[in-house]
Design goal:
The chain has 35 helices and 28 strands. With about 950 residues, it is of the alpha+beta class.
Length: about 950
C-alpha cells in the first residue's frame, strides 16, 4: 500500500513523507492521535533493522533516577515476567545491537537485528518492558539495580550496594568525568543540565522507591515518547502492533514536558573540584582546566556540524592554532576540544590536561587573545579546507564501529527532535557540508568565533586537581555515617533491615520457572543460516588483496614486523608506532603534515598490533591509510614521507607528542582498568602476551614515562629501532577496495616496497622476566576491576566452536547473576582465545575476593548445571550472534589480517559454525569439565582500582603497586 499524507494508519496520522538521500531512505513522520506518541520511519533496503523508544527524562536532582529506571524497566514486565528478559535476549537472540542509554535529558531503548522474526520479538519485549515494567510493583528490582542498604547479621556493619551505585562510583572516579560535571555546573546553574543524570553516589541513597515510581509515571507516557524505526520492514504491521498492544490504552491528557534554555549570564563563573589519587601519587601538574562556552541549540543541525568542524580546526590536529599556542606556552602537557551536542544547548570546551590551577589566569588570557587574533586575521585556509574534507570523508564512510548506522542516524536525529525540530532536518548533513564549503572563504568560521566565543557571556572556567586520600576520607566519612545510622536504629529497625537484605538475596537466588522463561519466544536452530560468511582474499608478493564494495574508498595497511627488535628496545617500538605521522619530516613540519593528511585522505594512522599466528605470533607496526580513489597517489606520497623521512631529532616536536601520549595513556587505564588487568594477567603466560604488555600495557606506560624524562635519548632509540623495522624483509601490506581499484593500489604499494632497504636481521627471543601470580595496581578509584587468566594450551586443549557456547553460558548465566546481580558490579565477562588462553574479568566492581571466588567456582557451576535441550538452543543462538555481527568496511580489513596470520580458511570458519550448531548437552558437560578443571595449571590474578579496597584485601596479593610509578 502507498502511504498518503494526512491519512490514518492504525491510529497513526501520517504528517510528512520525504526522500532523504543522505541515508538512502524515504522517511515518514507519524503522530498517534489518541496518545500523542510521535513515530519516525526510515524506509530503505538495509536488512539491519533498528527500533528504539525514547523519552524526555529531565533530572531534578543528582539521584540518578532516570539511570536507575533505565536499568530497572528491563528486569521483567507484564507479558515477559522473568526477572531478566534483557539478559535472556543477550543469551539467545540474533540482535546486532541491544542496549539502553541514559543521557542528560533523555532515555533511549534501542534494539537491532537482521532477522525479521527476531527483530519483532526484540521490539515487543522492549515495548512491554517500557510500558508494563514489573519494577513499579517489585521494590527488589529497584534495590538491586539502583541501591540498597545491606546488613546480613546484627553484629556486622551496614553497607551500600547496587549496580548503578557501583557503576557511578566507577564513572566518577575518572578525572575527565569529574571535570565534565564541573563544566555543566558552571554553565548551567539554573537548568536541568547542572545535575548528574547518571547519579552521584553521594546522592543516590536519598532516592526513595516512591519518588522513583513517580518519575516513571511522570515521564514514561506515550505523549512524551518518540518511536524510531529504520530498515526493510512492513511498517504497517509495526504500527498496528504498537497501537493495539500499547498506545491505544492511553489518552493524550498530559502537559508537554519542556526543557528550558539557560538564561543569559552576567559574568563567567569558576567551578573547581578535586579527584582522588593514591597516597604519594600527588604531582605538581595533575590539574585539568577548561574554558567553556554555550554555542547555540542542538536544533540547529548546520550550526552543530559547523561547531564540530570548528572544534577539529582549533584543537584536534597538530596544526590546530589553539592547541599549538597552549602547548608552546607550556600551560599543560595535552590539549583537547570537547564539543557536546547531546544537550539542548551545545557546549564547547577547551581542555588542558596535566596543568596546574596556578595557570588558570594564563590559560584564559592565552585562549581569549588567540581567539581574537584568529577572528581578526583569519584561520589558515589549508587548515579549514583539510578539516571540511575530513568531515566529508567521515559522512561518506559511515564507519560507526559496533553501532548499526540506522541507530546512529536515529541518535543524531533525537538531538533536535526531542526539542521540537523536524526530525528529517537533523539527518540531512551532507547538504550542510556544501553550505559550509561555499561560505568558508567568507569568514564563516571566524564569524562563529566572534558570535559564540568573543561576544558570549555564557562562558565559564572549570578546574579540577588531584587530592591525595580523598576517596579514603570519603569512605571513612560514609562508614561513620552508616555507623551512626545503625546506632540510632532500634532493634526492630535492625531486624527489618536484616530481613530486607535476606529477602533481596532470596529474590536474586530464586530462578524463574521454565513457564516464565518460555514466554520469550526464540528462533529455532533450523531458522539460523547454516553457511558461514567469509570474505575471500588473496596474497601475492607479500601483499593481501581484499575486494569489497567501498563506495570509492581505498583502504591500505602497511605492516612491518618488529621481531628483530631486542627486548630492551621493544617499548620504543611501541612508542615509534604512536609517533609515526605526528613528527616533522624532511618536507613538512609536524603541524603541516597533519593538515596535508586531512586535506587529501580520510586519515593516516600508525598503531602497534601483535597478531596471533598458528605457531607463534607476529609483533607489527601497522601504518593505515584510507582515501578516495582520486587521492590515492597523494596518500602514498604522504606515507612514503612518514616512513622514509621522519625526523626523530626534532626533539621539540617529539616532546609535545610524547607528553600528549603520556596523558592519553594515563587516562586510558583509569577509565579501562579491566583492560589493563586482563593484559597484565595474559602477559605472564607466553611471549606473545608479554610483548603486548610491553607495547600496550602498564609496563609500556612505565617505559613511556621514562622516555619523556630524557627526550634526546628517546630520539636516538627511536631512530635505532626504525632502522631495524622498516626493511624489505619485515614488510607486508593489505589493500581493500572495489575490484576496479585493487589494481590501482598494487602499483602504489610496490612503490613503497621497492624503496625499502634489504637487511636480514635475527629474530629476537623475548623472555618473560616476571612471574607474579596475584598482583594489585592502585589507581585512586572508587571501585575495582578484576581479571584472572589461565592457559588451556598447557593441558593440550585447543580452541573449538563449542567454547563459544560455553562462554555464552558463563557470561549470561553464571557471571551475570553472581558478579553483577548479586555482587553489584556493573559488568563482567569471560573470553576464550584461539591460542588457548581463557580469562575472566569484572568491571566497576565493589568486590575483590568474592569476585575471584566466583571466577574460581565456574567449574562447580557447570558440575551442577542441569541444561535442557531447549535452553541449549538459546545459548547456541547467542553464540552464533557473536560471530555474525555486521562489520564495517575497515573492520573487514582487520579481520582479513587476523585470518591471514592465523591461516584461517573458509573451511575453518565453517567448521567453527558447525561445531556451535551441532553442540549437545552431553558435549557441553564433557568439554566444560575438561577446560574448566585446570587447578594444576598456573592462573594469574590482577586487580586494578581503589587503593582502599586493595589494602583491605592486601593479604590476597603477592605484590601491590601504583598504576603509574614515579620512574627515575
Amino acid at each position: 500500500m502507498t502511504l498518503k499524507i494526512n491519512e490514518s494508519y492504525y491510529g497513526f496520522e501520517l504528517k510528512k513523507i520525504q526522500d532523504v538521500p543522505d541515508i538512502d531512505s524515504q522517511c515518514f513522520v507519524f503522530m498517534h492521535k489518541k496518545s500523542g506518541a510521535k513515530v519516525f520511519y526510515a524506509k530503505n533496503t538495509d536488512d539491519n533493522k533498528v527500533f528504539f523508544t525514547a523519552f524526555k527524562t529531565p533530572p531534578v536532582d543528582d539521584c540518578g533516577t532516570a539511570h536507575i529506571l533505565e536499568h530497572s524497566v528491563l528486569c521483567g514486565s507484564k507479558s515477559y515476567p522473568g526477572k531478566d528478559p534483557f539478559n535472556e535476549l543477550i543469551k539467545g537472540s540474533l540482535s546486532t545491537y541491544l542496549n539502553a542509554m541514559t543521557f542528560s535529558d533523555k532515555t533511549m531503548y534501542p534494539v537491532a537485528s537482521r532477522n525479521g522474526k527476531d527483530f519483532k520479538k526484540l521490539v515487543d519485549v522492549y515495548l512491554d518492558a517500557i510500558f508494563n515494567p514489573n519494577v513499579i510493583q517489585e521494590e527488589n528490582i529497584f534495590s538491586q539495580e539502583g541501591w540498597h542498604y545491606e546488613l546480613a547479621k546484627e553484629d556486622e556493619e551496614i553497607g551500600i550496594n547496587g549496580v548503578v551505585y557501583n557503576e557511578m562510583k566507577g564513572a566518577l572516579s575518572s578525572p575527565e568525568r569529574i571535570l565534565n560535571s564541573a563544566i555543566n555546573q558552571s554553565l548551567f546553574p539554573e537548568s536541568i543540565y547542572r545535575f548528574e543524570s547518571g547519579g552521584d553516589p553521594e546522592a543516590i541513597p536519598s532516592l526513595t522507591f516512591e519518588n522513583f515510581k513517580k518519575f516513571y509515571n511522570d515521564y514514561y507516557h506515550p505523549s512524551n515518547s518518540f518511536f524510531y524505526l529504520y530498515g526493510d520492514m512492513d511498517i504497517e504491521e509495526y504500527l498496528e502492533h504498537i497501537d493495539f498492544e500499547y498506545l491505544s490504552n492511553y489518552n493524550n491528557d498530559t502537559d508537554e514536558i519542556v526543557i528550558s534554555a539557560e538564561g543569559e549570564h552576567s559574568k563567567r563563573s569558576l567551578v573547581s573540584d578535586t579527584y582522588s589519587v593514591p597516597k604519594g601519587g600527588k604531582t605538581e601538574n595533575d590539574s585539568m582546566l577548561s574554558l567553556n562556552f554555550l554555542t547555540g541549540n542542538s536544533t540547529d543541525s548546520l550550526l552543530m556540524l559547523s561547531m564540530e568542524i570548528l572544534n577539529y580546526i582549533l584543537l584536534s590536529t597538530d596544526a590546530s592554532p589553539m592547541k599549538k599556542i597552549i602547548l608552546n606556552k607550556k600551560i599543560g602537557e595535552n590539549v583537547e576540544g570537547w564539543f557536546d551536542s547531546s544537550m539542548y544547548q551545545m557546549v564547547f570546551s577547551i581542555v588542558v590536561k596535566n596543568s596546574t590551577c596556578k595557570k588558570v589566569g594564563l590559560f584564559k588570557e592565552t585562549i581569549m587573545r588567540e581567539l581574537e587574533k584568529l577572528a581578526q586575521n583569519g584561520i589558515d585556509e589549508d587548515l579549514v579546507v583539510s578539516a571540511v574534507n575530513k568531515f566529508e570523508f567521515l559522512l561518506k564512510e559511515e564507519d560507526f564501529s559496533n553501532r548499526p548506522k540506522g541507530l546512529v542516524y536515529g541518535m543524531g536525529m533525537m538531538k533536535g527532535w526531542l526539542h521540537g525540530q523536524d526530525p528529517v532536518e537533523a539527518i540531512q548533513l551532507k547538504k550542510h557540508i556544501e553550505t559550509i564549503r561555499a561560505n568558508m572563504e567568507n569568514r564563516y568560521f571566524e564569524s562563529l568565533i566572534e558570535t559564540y566565543f568573543l561576544d558570549s557571556h555564557n562562558a565559564s572556567i572549570a578546574a579540577i586537581a588531584g587530592e591525595e586520600g580523598k576517596q579514603e576520607r570519603a569512605e571513612e566519612k560514609l562508614k561513620k555515617e552508616l555507623q551512626i545510622m545503625k546506632e540510632s536504629m532500634s532493634k526492630t529497625e535492625i531486624d527489618s533491615l536484616i530481613k530486607k537484605t535476606k529477602e533481596l538475596k532470596e529474590y536474586q537466588n530464586t530462578a524463574d520457572t521454565q513457564e516464565v522463561l518460555d514466554k520469550i519466544p526464540f528462533l529455532k536452530k533450523e531458522e539460523v543460516d547454516k553457511e558461514a560468511t567469509f570474505d575471500v582474499f588473496e596474497e601475492k608478493d607479500r601483499v593481501i588483496y581484499l575486494p569489497q564494495k567501498t563506495d570509492g574508498i581505498i583502504y591500505t595497511k602497511l605492516l612491518f614486523s618488529t621481531e628483530s627488535v631486542p627486548k630492551e628496545l621493544v617499548p620504543y617500538a611501541g612508542i615509534l608506532a604512536r609517533v609515526m605521522g605526528k613528527l616533522d619530516t624532511a618536507k613538512f613540519d609536524f603541524d603541516v603534515l597533519s593538515t596535508q593528511i586531512n586535506k587529501y585522505t580520510g586519515g593516516i594512522a600508525s598503531t602497534f598490533k601483535v597478531y596471533t599466528k598458528k605457531n607463534g605470533y607476529m609483533p607489527t607496526i601497522v601504518i593505515s591509510g584510507k582515501c578516495f580513489e582520486r587521492s590515492y597517489e597523494k596518500m602514498t606520497e604522504l606515507i612514503d614521507e612518514i616512513i622514509f623521512n621522519t625526523d626523530f631529532n626534532a626533539v621539540k616536536s617529539l616532546e609535545k607528542v610524547l607528553l600528549a601520549l603520556k596523558v592519553t595513556q594515563e587516562n586510558y587505564f583509569i577509565n579501562n582498568g579491566h583492560l589493563a588487568a586482563i593484559l597484565r594477567c595474559k602477559a605472564m603466560f607466553n611471549e606473545e602476551s608479554y610483548y603486548g604488555e610491553m607495547v600496550d600495557g602498564i609496563e609500556f606506560s612505565d617505559s613511556l614515562r621514562s622516555a619523556v624524562k630524557n627526550i634526546p635519548e628517546t630520539a636516538k632509540k627511536l631512530l635505532e629501532v626504525s632502522k631495524l623495522i622498516f626493511t624489505k624483509e619485515n614488510f607486508m601490506a593489505i589493500v581493500s577496495a572495489d575490484e576496479k581499484n585493487l589494481e590501482f593500489g598494487k602499483e602504489n604499494i610496490k612503490y613503497i616496497q621497492d624503496k625499502l632497504v634489504s637487511k636480514t636481521l635475527k629474530k629476537q627471543d623475548i623472555k618473560i622476566d616476571k612471574n607474579i601470580f596475584k598482583e594489585a595496581v592502585e589507581n585512586g578509584g572508587k571501585v575495582v576491576y578484576n581479571a584472572k587468566a589461565t592457559n588451556l594450551s598447557a593441558k593440550g586443549i585447543k580452541y573449538s566452536g563449542d567454547m563459544e557456547v560455553i562462554k555464552n553460558i558463563i557470561n549470561t548465566e553464571y557471571l551475570w547473576k553472581e558478579v553483577r546481580v548479586k555482587g553489584g558490579a556493573y559488568g563482567s565477562g569471560c573470553q576464550f582465545e584461539k591460542d588457548g588462553k581463557i580469562y575472566f574479568y569484572s568491571y566497576r566492581d565493589p568486590n575483590i575476593k568474592d569476585t575471584f571466588a566466583t571466577f574460581n567456582g565456574v567449574g562447580d557451576f557447570f558440575e551442577e548445571l542441569d541444561l535442557t535441550e531447549k535452553e541449549l538452543i538459546k545459548y547456541i543462538l547467542g553464540a552464533i550472534n557473536t560471530i555474525d555481527r555486521p562489520m564495517s568496511k575497515a573492520t573487514k580489513v582487520d579481520m582479513a589480517l587476523v585470518r591471514y596470520f592465523f591461516e584461517t580458511t573458509k573451511e575453518d570458519v565453517q567448521k567453527t559454525r558447525d561445531q556451535i550448531l551441532s553442540v549437545t548437552v552431553e558435549g557441553i558437560k564433557a568439554l566444560s569439565k575438561v577446560i574448566l578443571d585446570v587447578k594444576e595449571v598456573a592462573s594469574y590474578h590482577c586487580t586494578v582500582g581503589s587503593d582502599i579496597k586493595i589494602r583491605e584485601n592486601s593479604n590476597f596479593f603477592d605484590e601491590i603497586r601504583q598504576l603509574y610509578k614515579n620512574t627515575q
